[in-house]
Amino acid sequence: MGRVDQASAPVAGHTPARAGTGRTSAQAGTGRIPAQAGPDRTPAALLLALAIAFALLCLVSSEPVNALRLLLTGALPEPRWSAEGGWVLGRLARFGAVLEKTALLTLLGLGMLFGLRARQFSMGADGQMMLAALAALAAGVAMPPLGGASWLLAGAVAVAVGFTFGLLPGWLKTRFEANEIVSSLMLNIVALQAYRWIVAQGFNDPAAGFLATPALAAAARPPLLAGFSALLLLIVLAPWAAGLVLNRSTVGYELRVVGDAPAFARQAGLPVARSIVLAMAIGGAFAGGAGWLLSHGLLGRLPADLPAGLGFEGLVVALLAANEPRRVPWAAFGYALLEGGAQAMERASDVPREMVLVIQALVVLAVVSVRLDPLAALRRGWARWSGGAAPGLPGLEARP
Amino acid sequence: MTPDTGLVAAALLAALLRATVPILFAALAGTVSERAGVINVGLEGLMLVAAFFGVMGTVWAPQWLPGAGAGLHAALGAAIGLAASVALALLLGLTHLRWGADLIVAGIGINLLAAGATVFLLALWAGDKGSTAQLASLALPALPIPGLDRWPLLDALLNGDDRRGHHVLLWAGLAAVPLLHALLAHTRFGLRLRATGEQPEAALAAGVAVDRVRYAALALSGLLAGCGGLYLSMGYLTLFQADMTGGRGFIALAAVFLGGRTPLGAFAASLLFGACAVGATQLGLLDWPPQAVQMLPALATLAAMVLFGWQRRRRARRRAAADFARWQAAAASSS
Q1: Does B46 touch chain A (CB under 8 A)?
Q2: How far off is chain B from A146, nearest CA to CA, in Å?
């Protein structure tokens, strides 16, 4: 059964951080971070999550195959033959929405990634994004166009607001030992209500027809490239910048060491507390960038009922990307595709689009379950079923 | 004190208990898991799932057992809700203990799964993405204490302002505090559970099945958090709403640490947060903007965390100073 092996593994994860008494398991490291899981098991985890999703679809839908097809491909452009125009691509508008969502999720994923690399679980991307979006919009409305560069300045404002608000959970943690999950979620509530308060009580445009902020002037918005906002370039630029900070700067090195080997970092005299605070704050800066994208790139004016919960999607993206900045855009694209597909699925089949929320959670659980290897389990099952003890088949060795 | 203000105070106290109980259950659940060394971040999700399946259970029960009474139907629904939350807690245990998942990320994943699955199934089964308002669901009964008519103050306190008695889960929550304290402090299982949390290797060497104890602690936390969820959907309200826990699971997580990881401390911290919630609704009666009122519990949680952290820090510093003074005195006398 491997009883001892199972029991001792989580124990080993606990030891270094548990030297002092009164330390809580939420503060101590528990288990592994996906980035160091060895061979890339993200595809297997994804396949597993989709397999479970398909099983669910079979249970709830009368046309599971069709629903799955729509979910996976419903948001892709569709090549269509027409007599007058030859081959044309259909559904381009929907694909544009996917690209916009990809940019947003890329930034939010990067916002989560920094905290995760330092082993901090700040969930505050939501609130950071909202306040940053509001600040950027207010700056954009208040500033003169500055020769068409005011959107850049507004971006700086958004990043600064995200950074500052992202600083708070880290500061509360290092100064007051406040658990960062709880404090960042509470700060989200505060930010969300503050946002609604500001938009509802003063900063709104009665001519909008719904409760929303004043709109940005066209001159205050970034230029368009091929019909899209130039801010979509952040899909490429933001991961590059994040990689630079994470892999080529002292701050990035320190926060990686603090995340990978906290005991070593402390022993080597690295500024552990500062790294923890900075990791969350840099993440906040990227979440602030997401707010900038929202206000200047995608919406142009902010509604009072901006949906909450985007920050958790950022977590999914960061985990899918195995906390590697380079892979974040791909993960974001995949996730945005799935979400667009879910809407197509809801329209054209009998499955509600909230299915994608279930898949999202299954992906998180499958990705972090580093010792769960569905292929090895299948192989083991096959070996047992076919009489076992087949010498050529790797059985238990497949398990790390 | 006129009897009138006394009655108001008793009514406020009853309201305080009603606001406290869901947080209390979740905080006790968090305490059990934390003491076993497997902090359960998925409390919010466990509450949601129990609340949802409790309601759906009472919708299904009359179809399964048409002859039985409403009480049995409600009990069956509650059992289904609790089974769901225990199952989800065990899934968290499985991912962490067997499949090596990071406990905290997995807990967040459990929350996502619960939030997504409840809305998904709500859309599927109730045809409505907001709530089960269109389905007829049952509540768990209240337990009135008879024979208190002669003491209106006591009556208002023990039977609520409408004199119909407090919800059965409210009494259960109050009873769970000493029971859990006794379990942790005075039983063999409690000792093993605490050993597992404090020094897992020592526990393992002493022959404690560490993993099994942790599974048991998580199952117990699922049961307790599930009671909190049931209180929301089969007591506080008699329907399920999407995201009806509203962050109580996370506030409870704060209560675990504020309460010093003990059941009694968790009770005190839950009372504090319950008082904040009651205070917020009372302020809502004044002319405050609703956003400010909804912000209050979160701000109170943050303030409480800061205050306790500051105090803990000061105490540690004082202890260090005393140690240093003792060491200095010893060094001076020996030289």
Answers
A1: no
A2: 35
Q: How far apart are alpha carbons A287 and A168 in whole angstroms?
A: 14
Place of tokens 């009164």: A22
> Who among A186, A354, A364 is closest to B301 (CB)?
A186
CB contact under 8 A, B197 and A32: no
The ipTM is 0.86
Which chain B residues touch A7 with a CB distance below 8 Å?
Answer: 204, 209-211
Which of B31, B99, B199 would you mutate first to test chain A, the one with the most A CBs within 10 A? B99
How far apart are alpha carbons B223 and B85 in whole angstroms? Answer: 7
> In chain A, where does DSSP find H-type helix?
3-14, 42-60, 64-73, 92-117, 125-142, 150-176, 180-201, 234-248, 250-260, 262-267, 272-292, 310-320, 328-348, 355-368, 374-385
Nearest by Cα to B161 from B327, B13, B61: B13
CB contact under 8 A, B302 and A183: yes
Interchain contact B305–A (C-beta under 8 A): yes
What span, in angstroms and rounded, lies between the C-alpha atoms of B241 and B128?
A: 10
> Distances from the Cα of B199 to the Cαs of A5, A337, A370, in angstroms?
17, 46, 24
| pLDDT tens digits along B136-171 | 788 888 887 777 777 777 777 777 777 777 888 999
pLDDT at A86 over 60: yes
Inter-residue contact B217 to B210 (CB < 8 Å): no
Among B103, B122, B213, the strongest candidate for a mutation testing the A interface, having the largest count of A CBs within 10 A, is B103
Q: What does the longest C-alpha to C-alpha distance in chain A come to? A: 78
Domains of chain B, CATH where assigned? 3-246 (1.10.3470)
* pLDDT (mean) for A33-43: 58
